[in-house]
Amino acid sequence: MKTKIFYWILRIVPAIILLQTLYFKFSAAPESVFIFSSLGGEPYSRIGLGVIELITAILILIPKTAFYGTLIALVLMVGAIFSHLFVLGIVVQNDGGTLFILALITFGFCGLYLLFEKKLHPKI
What we know:
Strand content: under 5%
Number of domains: 1
């Protein structure tokens, strides 16, 4: 039972983080527009990434597809972390580093899920 709860937490936290950022991407919030303008992909990258993150969050929440969803999220977060480190900076528009921290949390939770899933199912 404890293992099941642990696996759910490792999936729910990243899914919630991915889903809560969608409002900002899809509503063209100034922070999102700034980020994707800085990365040279406004508006297509912002909207496209929002769609990918929506699909990824859904995959994470479905037990049979959680492995693939967490794998996709891990790759997305590598991109987000690198964007912060090499282009945007840790703090974006006085957010105190919140977006960077959320990317690290998502990366960590997805990485842990994949690590434990691999130990539980070595054939994957």
